[in-house]
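SAMPLE LOG
Freezer: B-3
Tube label: C17
Construct: single chain, 98 aa
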Amino acid sequence: MLRSQRNTKIHLAATLAVIGLGIWSGLGSIEWALLAVVTTLVWVAEGINTALETLADRVQPEYDPLIGRAKDVSAGAVLLAAIGAAIVGLLVFLPRLI
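STRUCTURE (predicted):
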C-alpha cells in the first residue's frame, strides 16, 4: 500500500507526527488509546479503499460509472475517517499546546 498509494505516505507522516507529539506531550493511557483507535480506523479505511480500487480496476479496466461511484464512496469513507481522527487529535493535543 505504501508503494502504490500516495495518500498512505501522508497517513504515515501523520501517524509518525502523532506518535512524536504524543511522546513529547506525555499523553496518558486513555489519550493514547483514543489516538490508536482513530489512527487504526484511518489505516483500515485506506486499506479497504485500496483493495476495492485495485479489484475494480482488475474486473473492469474501462471506465464504468457505477464502479466510479463505488470508488468515490470508498475514498469518501477514508476522508471521513481522517476528519474524525483530526478532530480527536485536536481534542487531545490542543489543550496541551495552549
